[in-house]
Amino acid sequence: MSILVVIVALAGCGGQGDEELLVSAAASLAGAFAEIEGAFEDARPDVDVVLNFGGSSTLREQILGGAPVDVFASANMSNMDAVVAAGQTVGAPRVFAFNTLEIAVPAGNPGSVDGLDDFSDDGLLLGLCAEAVPCGELAREALSTAGVTAAIDTNEPDVRALLAKIEAGELDAGIIYVTDVTSAGGTVEGIAIPEDVNVTAECSIAVLAGAANHQIANAFIDMVLSDEGQAILSEYGFSSQ
After folding, report:
1. pTM
2. N or C terminus: fewer CB in 10 A for the chain?
3. 34-93 pLDDT, tens digit each
4. Within 10 A of 149 (CB to CB), how many other CB atoms are there?
5. 129 pairs with which residues across the strands?
């Protein structure tokens, strides 16, 4: 299956505009970007925004492999930096939101998890995102700072996959973003990670050099950075500072 077919298969349904805008965005942005898509299409009915969500590292590799993408929104800077270094962006990336980590447990907390120390308990079923994706990289950084040697049972390809296993009760706990706990709407419970060991992720966005229409791509980024876009991101738990 070609990269193009994969992207179309993964993309959400957009409007019926005359021109497509292909946006590859980190899985943690799914809820917020779906709303921003709607707001943008209301303002620009001539444009059909096609969203492709996945782990930022997976999206990076798709872009570097030649996938047709107009706008890239990464959950961290390192994956964006790799795309910039490859000469695949136009202008400097813009940081548009910040995210932090939280422990997530199934509703009712059946494993009685109360902090990062529990991630060393091999009697619990524990999960992280894969190390290559931002939520996995940052979770390991937080655990290391806290001096915890984790006993991990599964490494999931992105934060949404990890959240799904926690929601289903297949895991006693995982480390995901605050925003994903918020978007889960009560199907999981969040346990705060102390500020002195928590990690902040910088979400960045850029127009890609191969974008079919740079003007429309920049207009979408302007929407993300606008008061309306920032209000939507805030509703999902992202912060602007």
Report:
1. 0.83
2. C
3. 999 999 999 999 999 999 999 999 999 999 999 999 999 999 999 999 999 999 999 999
4. 8
5. 156
Domain formed by 3-98+202-235, architecture: 3-Layer(aba) Sandwich (3.40)
- Name the band, by pLDDT with cuts 50, 70 and 90, for residue 18: confident
What b/e sequence results for 55-92 when a residue is b if at least 16 CB atoms lie within 10 Å of its CB, and e otherwise? bbbbbbbbbeeebbbbbbbbbbbebbebbbeeebbeee
How many Å apart are CA 229 and CA 83, to the nearest integer?
A: 24
- pLDDT digits over 103-131, tens only? 999 999 999 999 999 999 999 999 999 99
Nearest Cα residue to 210 out of 93, 109, 63 = 63
Beta bridge partners of 49: 21
Where along the chain do its domains lie?
Answer: 3-98+202-235, 99-192
Q: What is the dihedral of CA 102, 105, 109, 115, to 10 degrees?
A: -40
Token output for 112: 């009685």
CB-count burial class (<10 Å; 0-12, 13-18, 19+) for 220: buried
Asked whether the beta carbons of 106 and 188 are under 8 A apart, the reply is yes
Sequence-distant (≥ 6) Cβ neighbours of residue 112 within 8 angstroms: none
Please, how many CA atoms are within 13 Å of residue 111, restricted to the half-sphere of its CB? 25
User: Residue 188: which H helix or E strand, with range?
Assistant: strand 188-192
CATH architecture of residue range(s) 99-192: 3-Layer(aba) Sandwich (3.40)
- Say what percent of the chain tops pLDDT 90: 88
